[in-house]
Amino acid sequence: MNRLLSKLVNPSVRCLKCFMFTVIAGVILGFCAPLQAYTLQNLTQYVNPFCGTAGGGNAAFLYPGAVAPFGMVQWSPDTSQNPSGYQYSDTQVHGFSLTHGSGGGCNYGSDFSFMPILGTVNSSPYSSSNYSHLNTSYFANITGGSQHANPGYYSMQFNGITTELTATTRTGFGRFTYPSGNTASMLINLGGDTNGTINASIQINPGGNEISGWTQMSGMCGTAPGIMYFDVVFDHSFSSYGVWNGSTYYANGQTTTGASSGAAFSFNLSGGGVVLAHTALSSVSVANARANLAAESPGSSFNNNGFNAEVTAANNAWNAYLNEIQVSGGSAADTQTFYTMMYRTLLAPNVVSDVNGQYMGFDGSVHTLSGRTQYGWYSGWDIYRNECQFLAMIDPVRASDMAQSLVQDAADCGAMPRWADTFGDGGLMLGDCSTPIIGDMYAFGARSFDTASALADMKRAALTPNVQARNGTYERPNESSFLSLGYVPSGPTQGGYAPVCMTLEYCIDDYALAQFANAIGSTGDYLPSMQRAQNWRNLYNSSTGYIQMRDSNGAWSSGFPTYNGSAFADGDVYQYVWAVPFNLSSLFNSMGGASTALSRLNNFFTQINDSDTSNGQYAFMGNEPCAATPWIYTSLGQPYKASSTVRQIMTQLFNASSNGYPGNDDFGAESSWYVWAALGMYPAIPGSDVLVLHGPLFPQATLNLQHGTITITGSGASDSAPYVQSLSVNGQSSNASWIHFANFVNGGTLSYSMGASANTGWGTSSLPPSDTDGMTVTGIAGTHLIVNHANGLAIDNGSTTTQGAGVIQWGPNGGSAQKWTFTQNSDTSWNIVNQFSGQSLDVPGGSTTNGTQIIQWGANGGDNQRWWVDIQPSGSYKIWNKANSLALDDDNMTGNGSPLIQWTWNGGNNQLWNLQ
């Protein structure tokens, strides 16, 4: 037994980091959990794989079966047609399949379903009466106490049969114990996909005790379908066998192809006993599935001891990952919830490449990698908010492969995916999600990937309209409108929907792009990206105080659309108004100041899980748009309210039971939220390394990271003590409510004193950053001539003091009629006042009509007299109105006396202005 083997088998041994294939008790495992020089504790004992498996309106949709960290194989029971294929309250099981989704909101998987039965099969088990296409006579009743699960292991007893399952990354190992006195048999059903099997094929090799085949799977939520291959080898020969295709059964048949097909076989097993099964998956071929099986579950381990060793190895791999964060001092219930949530966080993204480096690319071609792993199953819109940061923090090497996988997807198919499964991008949800995912991972330590190509991919989608994957999916639907108008208008095309949400997501994407570009040294991309990020202002309706939809002419849509209508998706106007995480101070100013924003936030958190899909006015923490909203209290100068709100959400909405989630887990998004919350910090600004602090749940938490140890202590911390009394950072007293992760990547200490009563002054001396870069220029306060870049004419008031007089253009002469004084407002907009008349540059009546002439009017502070001034790459300025987002335009005229008009931004020289 070598040193690495002894460290993994003995959980008390202090361990070193490893990223290689690991051999344990003769079993080659397709994963190697990150290990650090610390003493491993038995933490898998706290994980409840049945957590989140209950049904209901806000179900988490999780499965309890055997899986390795980020594993390709999820060997788990099939009980019902829902997104995970399983529900804890179900009373019957009809198989144990190899594919399951981890908490998504749409059906997926339940392919390659194994069902142990008693007795021989003489007719087709097919039935059209249920989604599994299996006759209910083969279903088995689930009795209380018959199911057991630990990380990497699952078992169930029924009809005298005990089914036990474990898994490596790409393989499954099953042990089926049959009673005496009956014929031991098995069904493999290829027609049970919860979305409907498109096609399938199965092949029996009786001489090798082997069955193989493929299934053309339906995609999740409309994602791309694809073919997955499997191979399984049993340790017993077949006494009889056959295949079925629909209602036709072929006794002694060895192959068939059809959407409702499968194999039935009995074992040469007299007097009952154990049947072992080694199985594997591949997206490339049956041959690759066999290679995965040979590498990760070789024949030398094909015995009871081998099964037990693989269960132990899977447990040790999970335990090594869980030991990346060691918490202590909390209640038993909190400890169980914490490690269960951490376990769920480490299920996805999933490995999709085989042991030989091959994977099926999004272009439908086989690609081969060397020295790294390809990943799929990125629930992009969900996981960029807090999961990707966590994965990069605890395992930057694996996260680097995850980031590179998105870059590879773009190379394969022409665009980075918004929502990637094994076979392609289904274009689910909103935003260019790969951009903040990569930005998150880089910010939290994942650096070993092709950053130059990643930036090029990001920029191509951000700056080039109509970037499409080969399957026709747009990376940024309606990007042309976002670039030309500064927002996505009502009635979006290109398969887009919910234009308000789309606009806000693109703003977050461009913020993440700006941070990433700046971090890797491409500083010239920073400001233009930040300018696009500030486009959220174009949809802020100061008349209502909400971010709302408008048409391509700038007119606000009639009515007040709220939830999942034409304007929003998976949220409503009350929830999305807060979706400017990188520039909250400007949002507060738009609302009328911090006090108004605070009053609205207080009302918003009157309820914490309002899932009213018609007119919910409160927080819905069961869905991702509200994930960062509790920490807005901190940006408003009240960190103590963030602390109490986060703790309320944790204690009331999360636990380790089957009903332990407030909503869909969405491949770890909700789980990772809880883990961050329990640690007392949260990555509230996607694309940055900012962590907002609110105080820990546990008295002690040790983060055993790759480059150092972060120690978090919370004296007095408990469920009932959510408030920070004081904080020391690396031994120095701190009244700041946030930190940069970069300052802790090599280790550090956060020492809190916690209490049951609020210290309202803590954390108020330094609030989280609010980035106004790109929002408007600085350094232009004072008096200037405003000269058009195209025609060289200056903006002129016509030497009149008449209120309402039209503003014109004239050759520069330096007179007071051409001199305009810029004064900045608290929202960073500018009032522009003429020196001759003392009146303000004004949009008459706040008109939203292209071609309207600009006038002068006495200063009144209205939005129609407030102007955003953004510097452009040429060094000239874009000047555009806050009320309607239309830009000053020379009307393509060159003569003295030409009117100054407003027009939709197009970036032409006629809309660029120089200040002299």
Automatic annotation (TrEMBL):
Pfam families: Glyco_hydro_92 (PF07971), Glyco_hydro_92N (PF17678), RicinB_lectin_2 (PF14200). SMART domains: RICIN (SM00458). InterPro entries: 6-hairpin_glycosidase_sf (IPR008928), GH-type_carb-bd (IPR014718), GH92_a_mannosidase_put (IPR005887), GH92_N (IPR041371), Glyco_hydro_92 (IPR012939), PNGase (IPR050883), Ricin_B-like_lectins (IPR035992), Ricin_B_lectin (IPR000772). This is Alpha-1,2-mannosidase. One of its GO terms (cellular component) is cytosol. GO terms for biological process: carbohydrate metabolic process; glycoprotein catabolic process. PANTHER family: PEPTIDE N-GLYCANASE PNGASE -RELATED, SECRETED PROTEIN. Gene3D superfamilies: 2.70.98.10, 2.80.10.50, alpha-1,2-mannosidase, alpha-1,2-mannosidases domains, GH92 mannosidase domain. GO terms for molecular function: carbohydrate binding; peptide-N4-(N-acetyl-beta-glucosaminyl)asparagine amidase activity. PROSITE patterns: RICIN_B_LECTIN. It comes from Capsulimonas corticalis.
